[in-house]
Automatic annotation (TrEMBL):
Domain of life, per lineage: Bacteria
Residue numbers spanned by region Disordered: 74-108
The AMP-dependent synthetase/ligase domain, residue ranges: 142-510
GO molecular function, one term: acid-thiol ligase activity
Name under which the protein is recorded: NrpS
Keyword Oxidoreductase: no
Biased composition range(s): Low complexity: 91-102
Organism: Actinoalloteichus cyanogriseus
Gene3D superfamilies linked to this entry: 3.30.300.30, ACP-like, N-terminal domain of ligase-like
Keywords for the protein's UniProt record, in alphabetical order: Ligase
Length: 650
């Protein structure tokens, strides 16, 4: 055990977190970089070849036994360097729209759509005068004694959830939180996350839903931009000290006066469990009363999401009450979610896809039950599916693949599952077409963005549409433009940049005038940065990002198209294509590959792609091997990092 202990401590695992019965993923939460390094160390130092990302989640005791069985001792002075790389469209143009359709920025810094469009959405019934907390708590077709939230052994009924939100409103008000304030909410999947978000909505304050994986660099930018008055964090999560980070941020930013702490209490912080407890639990604080205004200002943000940060620090995305409320009221029916549904959240609920598409809040709004999971590991999730009779869940493509592999051998009863939503990235057909047979449920592809637009395949679509497209816009009021570099519409079926506006798509980022000027058109359309084609069914096929187009001597090449085809090669586990510099053509196709077994040569890959029918001008000129693709956010490859690597190698 001592040899493994030495390796893990060098990887940053703390001494007290190393025990024989702990598992690498479920307990230590090693990320992909750490896992690759551990695999390399075991192979180099002890001759142990092991795949730490297969279906089995190794305990430290199991790995230690393999080291002892190998009977090898690492060479003295080994530097243990982590392996890295082996071997080395313009925005659309527009003019101001007639009729005063431009967005407007208020004194509170929120960018709002034009009054004329807002009036249209209200007249059509898309926007109604209800806050998000009212839609979720008061309008849902559910009785007070029905279970609303499950987390481990904790169960909150509808009545207890309403009581907790009302009590939290009073306690937050006593702490000085007021309408218009912002609060960073960086919490794992736990009931306090839901209670706090709904309580802030009722006050008229705004939770900034912050992914648990973000660190000081990203949060410092968020705090500088939004000037929040408080931050909610766990004491520790997956080996990271969130409390220390929050205290540092509080020292650096005068606006950040309060830390709301989940977990073991700290005298310098407010105990989040006590803050969010139902009134009848006697958790302290003032007498409970609903302090929300009788005629609330619906023009406020219900919550803020954060962009994935693929072009820099995350942007703050305010989702206004009426617009986000429409999303929560409308999307459950598209996924077949109703009062009898049970939604399992295994990915972070602070991400927009899991939070409200329909996700956690949409399921509650539809009268269903939400199970907050702590792990994406298939067997742990399958146990929850069986115990809670889960009907719906949400995954990214890489997790779908793992669940299908594990599902072939599981002994858990998954017969309650009805719909598996797949999003966050475009899946390969091979990743989703086995889901109905293995997991016994339907696939629903979902495409969207934190800024608004959502697309879904229908539950009665053909296999071709379900497996090969990313769905149709959710609302009849969603407006779509697919344009070329000049801003002109492309012919049906042709590749173009996607622009959109609609009743739940934002009009601008918070505190970022530069991004707003480049990302939103004068008539209120959002430049998504995605390249799409329109399928004959009306569904969109997402081919990549504007940045994912490689311009090789004037020929435009979709990186996603190449990646999906290359990943079907029998010797390739995953692939990512980026533009590398070329002295003659400007850009060349550089394909980063994670090998599956014996690495293929560049000639092998090119021959395979030609055999598959890919145009020769799209073939890669360079093949670079990596142990794992770098990822940003949820399921998104860090293309910025790969472009930098491609440039360095030249």
């Amino acid at each position: 055990m001592e040899e493994l202990r030495r390796i893990l401590t060098e990887l940053g695992v703390e001494e007290q977190e190393i025990a024989p019965d702990l598992r690498l993923r479920a307990h230590l939460a090693l990320d992909s970089t750490e896992t690759v390094e551990l695999e390399a160390r075991l192979g180099r130092d002890y001759g142990i070849v092991v795949d730490l990302w297969d279906a089995h989640d190794y305990t430290l005791g199991e790995l230690s036994a393999r080291i002892e069985a190998a009977g090898a001792t690492p060479a003295a002075g080994d530097e243990h360097a982590a392996p890295a790389v082996n071997g080395g469209g313009a925005p659309a143009t527009d003019t101001a729209a007639p009729g005063g359709d431009a967005s407007r920025t208020g004194e509170d810094g929120l960018v709002r759509i034009s009054p004329a469009r807002a009036a249209e959405y209200r007249s059509a019934g898309y926007w109604i005068p209800r806050r998000v907390d009212q839609i979720v708590l008061d309008d849902a077709p559910a009785e007070a004694d029905q279970v609303a939230l499950v987390a481990g052994e904790r169960r909150l009924t509808r009545g207890e959830l309403r009581s907790a939100v009302s009590a939290t409103v009073a306690r937050l008000t006593a702490l000085g939180v007021r309408a218009g304030d912002m609060v960073v909410v960086q919490l794992p999947n736990e009931p306090e996350l839901v209670v706090l978000a709904l309580a802030l909505s009722r006050i008229g304050a705004t939770p900034i839903m912050t992914p648990i994986a973000l660190r000081h660099y990203e949060l410092d930018h968020v705090v500088r931009t939004a000037r929040p008055v408080a931050i909610a964090v766990p004491r520790r999560h997956t080996r990271f000290d969130h409390l220390a980070m929050a205290q540092r941020l509080r020292e650096e930013h005068a606006c950040l006066g309060t830390v709301l702490l989940s977990g073991e209490p700290d005298p310098s912080c407010v105990d989040l469990a006590a803050l969010c407890a139902p009134a009848e639990d006697g958790a302290g604080g003032p007498a409970v009363q609903d302090t929300a205004e009788p005629a609330p200002d619906l023009d406020r943000a219900a919550l803020c999401l954060l962009s994935s940060g693929t072009t820099g620090p995350p942007k703050v995305i305010p989702r206004l009450q009426e617009a986000y409320g429409y999303q929560l009221r409308h999307t459950p029916a598209l996924a077949g979610v109703g009062p009898e549904s049970v939604y399992l959240a295994v990915m972070p609920a602070t991400h927009g896809f899991v939070l409200g598409c329909p996700g956690v809040l949409g399921t509650l709004a539809a009268g269903g039950r939400v199970v907050l999971g702590a792990s994406t590991e298939p067997e742990q999730a399958f146990a929850l599916v069986e115990r809670e009779r889960v009907t719906h869940t949400t995954l990214v493509p890489a997790l779908v693949e793992r669940w299908v592999d594990a599902g072939r051998a599981t002994t858990h009863d998954l017969s309650s599952l009805r719909v598996l939503q797949v999003g966050g990235a475009r899946p390969r057909r091979g990743q989703v077409e086995e889901v109905p047979a293995v997991l016994g449920c339907q696939v629903q592809q979902c495409y969207g963005m934190s800024e608004g637009l959502l697309c879904y395949t229908a539950l009665d679509d053909t296999d071709e549409v379900v497996f090969d497209t990313q769905g149709r816009p959710a609302s009849p009021a969603d407006e779509i433009r697919v344009v070329d570099d000049a801003g002109d519409p492309v012919p049906p079926g042709e590749l173009g940049a996607l622009l959109t506006r609609g009743p739940y798509t934002v009009a601008g980022y918070y505190g970022d005038e530069e991004s707003n000027a480049s990302t939103f058109t004068a008539d209120g359309f959002y430049r998504t940065g995605d390249l799409v084609r329109v399928h004959p069914s009306g569904s969109l096929i997402v081919e990549g990002r504007n940045r994912d187009v490689i311009n090789r001597g004037g020929e435009k090449i979709s990186a996603v198209e190449l990646e999906l085809m290359a990943a079907e090669h029998p010797s390739i586990a995953s692939a990512a294509a980026v533009a590398g510099p070329h002295p003659r053509y400007g850009e060349e196709v550089c394909l980063f590959v994670v090998a599956d077994g014996t690495p293929p040569t560049l000639v092998d890959v090119r021959r395979y792609l030609v055999h598959r029918g890919l145009a020769r001008y799209k073939l890669p000129e360079r093949l670079e091997f990596v142990d794992a693709l770098p990822y940003l956010g949820i399921g998104k490859v860090d293309k910025k990092r790969l472009r930098a690597l491609a440039a360095e190698d030249r």
